[in-house]
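Many introductory courses stop at the sequence. We go one step further.
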Amino acid sequence: MSASAEIQTGHPLFKELRNGMLWHSTGAQHYRRIWTDRVIKPNDGRIDRWGKPYACQQLGAVSLFDFTTEPEYKVLDEAFKWQQFLGDYEPVTLLLGIERKKLQGKLIPYPENKEGTAGPVIPWVEVCHCGPIPASAIVTYLLVCPTDYRCFKKFQSLNEEKLSLVEKEFGPIVETERKRQMAEHRERVRRLLDRAHEKS
């Protein structure tokens, strides 16, 4: 992970995330489905990214992030486990800010959500919401560039026009960074091969 995609104390995105909201991370195509259905549905296995069900999925729940309840040091101690999800989708990751008072299902925080489940869970941060979440509970939208977490947009409402504009804006940034990373990787491999050749 590059330095521009690491979260630390004082990071502008982290400040936004510690505002009392619960957050659901998703990609643009998934968000369009949420917008059409008017609901965030629990993952029933349609999306299998880890090879096995995770804790919230086993509970029939929607996985949410709570960056506010626990002290900052506890949240940041687990950053290596959760910060990847802030940039999980290209060319933009959507973080949907949800108001607790608009939720009707049971919230299962850590460590309770770990009990009786075999799947992974992020300590102190991951919360499971039992049952679907109505789109009306989403009150804030953070659109994050997956290669540079300092680059994000905040909206109180999000329509197709705004989303498409951000996709077009972040797309070239992501492409440039991926090319840079690939060139860096090729250079590392070349150096290793050169050293191996020198020793032989």
